[in-house]
């Protein structure tokens, strides 16, 4: 059991910023194409965070060409280069799944001052 705990501690990242649901984040993801590696930025609103330790994940939603796109990222994935908090949102819920149904200006989130 101690070995499993040590392994999970070794796998965890230490450069993760403090963010929560409602925040707009930019995630730089490593993409492998044809034998080369590049960074791709995915910027959107955090809908949810779940899990603890190496099992923790977060869901980010953005609108691309009038289509909603959601990605679930493992928080401690080696394919994530960096996470940057673009702006803090003011919300009262931990899970913002209701944003999936909203369109246009209705889906905006107030900024925390």
From TrEMBL:
<feature type="compositionally biased region" description="Basic and acidic residues">
    <location>
        <begin position="7"/>
        <end position="20"/>
    </location>
</feature>
<dbReference type="GO" id="GO:0022625">
    <property type="term" value="C:cytosolic large ribosomal subunit"/>
</dbReference>
<comment type="similarity">
    <text>Belongs to the bacterial ribosomal protein bL19 family.</text>
</comment>
<protein>
    <recommendedName>
        <fullName>50S ribosomal protein L19</fullName>
    </recommendedName>
</protein>
<dbReference type="InterPro" id="IPR018257">
    <property type="entry name" value="Ribosomal_bL19_CS"/>
</dbReference>
<dbReference type="InterPro" id="IPR038657">
    <property type="entry name" value="Ribosomal_bL19_sf"/>
</dbReference>
<keyword id="KW-0687">Ribonucleoprotein</keyword>
<dbReference type="Pfam" id="PF01245">
    <property type="entry name" value="Ribosomal_L19"/>
</dbReference>
<dbReference type="GO" id="GO:0006412">
    <property type="term" value="P:translation"/>
</dbReference>
<keyword id="KW-0689">Ribosomal protein</keyword>
<dbReference type="InterPro" id="IPR008991">
    <property type="entry name" value="Translation_prot_SH3-like_sf"/>
</dbReference>
<dbReference type="InterPro" id="IPR001857">
    <property type="entry name" value="Ribosomal_bL19"/>
</dbReference>
<dbReference type="GO" id="GO:0003735">
    <property type="term" value="F:structural constituent of ribosome"/>
</dbReference>
<feature type="region of interest" description="Disordered">
    <location>
        <begin position="1"/>
        <end position="20"/>
    </location>
</feature>
């Amino acid at each position: 059991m101690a070995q499993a705990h040590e392994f999970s501690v070794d796998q965890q990242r230490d450069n993760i910023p403090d963010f929560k649901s409602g925040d707009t984040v930019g995630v730089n993801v490593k993409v492998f194409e044809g034998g080369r590696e590049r960074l791709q930025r995915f910027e959107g609103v955090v809908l949810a965070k779940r899990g603890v330790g190496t099992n923790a994940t977060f869901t980010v939603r953005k609108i691309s060409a009038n289509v909603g796109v959601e990605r679930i990222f493992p928080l401690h994935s080696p394919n994530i280069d960096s996470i940057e908090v673009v702006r803090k949102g003011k919300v009262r819920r931990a899970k913002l799944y209701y944003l999936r149904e909203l369109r246009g200006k209705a889906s905006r989130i107030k900024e925390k001052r």
